Amino acid sequence: MAEAGARATGFGLRGRFVAAMLAVVAILGIGFYTAVRLGQETMERVAVGERLDDEFVEHLELIRINPAQPAIPSHPDFHGYLVRPGTADEAALPKALLRIRPGHRREVRIDGHSYYAGCEPTADGALLYLLLDVERIETLEAQLLRLAWIFIPTAMALAIAAALGLSRLVIGPVSRLAAKVTSLQPGRPHEPLALDVADREIGTIARALDRYVERVEAFVQREQAFTEDASHELRTPLAVILSALPLLLEDVGDAPRARERLARIERASRRMHETIEALLFLAREDGSVEAVDCALDERVHETIAELRHGLGPKPVQLEVDAEPTRVQGPPALIASVVHNLVANALHHTERGWVRVSLRDRVLTVADTGRGIPPEDLDRIFERRFRGSASAGLGLGLYLVRRIIRRLSWDIAVESTSSGTRFHVRLPELPVTPGPTQT
Prior knowledge:
This protein is of the alpha+beta class. About 55% of the residues lie in helices and about 15% in strands. The protein has nine helices and eleven strands. Strands 6-8-9-11-10 form a five-stranded mixed beta sheet, covered by helices on one side. Strands 1-4-3-2 form a four-stranded antiparallel beta sheet, covered by helices on one side. Strands 5-7 form a two-stranded antiparallel ribbon. It starts with a helix and ends in a 13-residue tail after the last strand.
């Protein structure tokens, strides 16, 4: 259950460390990439666009002054074309420039080179094309973008490493404290958890756990004292009652009413003995099961015979079909399982039958009762749970499930409006090797 709770909480402390560091790096990476892109756009607008516009202004003015001898730029970064319609100049114009309309600017590639080009009309109707070589700028932009893509995953990897290292420093004291808590055994002496804790915050937790452990140990001691007292104070009078009953039966002779009353007292005493044994067994923390070979079919027949006496005029047939089956476990606990299942079936069956079957190491208790509502089916084994039609204390089936778990058995239930079936699957008995023949 603890593992399920841990899984349910989602990210642990280490995961939150890593997520926080990755979030910071992601924000920084996005900021860096955005800065590169904005720098690129600014560079194109200022260093390229404005420079090209200035060059257009200068050359258009030169052409206006001297149309016969236009000044084509001779700077290494600039190239120019003056195209007059209907002349051979159009044939010499690169095809990429034909897509630029007058008054517009755009990036083009000519002969594998990047240019920022524009087109402006002259006063005499010609078209002036100017190209600014931006290959070095494009190369710089590509390098900056590559740097951004290298920086982001590298920073993320470093962030994960730093987060894991920091989380190890933080979680280390917590893990050591958890190991100490795990090693604690109720009833055994141990050193205070806060004895050698140097960290102030972890020390606060350790001291709180020490106080809690002290309260738990006091509670366990009270429970152990109660269990020992109950074991002695309840078993002793029951033993006296059960030993005195045969003598009383001899004294009453053949008086039927007296013998029936004494038989009822004996059945109730044995039932109380079984319940006490079951409760005391379940109260032990170790849950060790006494490896006693027990005939389950005999316990079934004894329980059926006992419960038949209490049926009275109730129109319910109690049937049994049990093949010889041996199991291992305390007889009182096994009897308690059978008794609670059959008594529960009889209690919820107004008329019809209750059948107990023991075949192929499966104990089945079926009835023709009112059935269990679907919304209650998953809760019938809970402590103190009482259905809408239940008049009990809600402990019978709870004890059944706890005993079955301790015995490593398995129980399943199916129910409809016409009846209920409980199936108890019994494990195979361990095979005892025979003597070795030589």
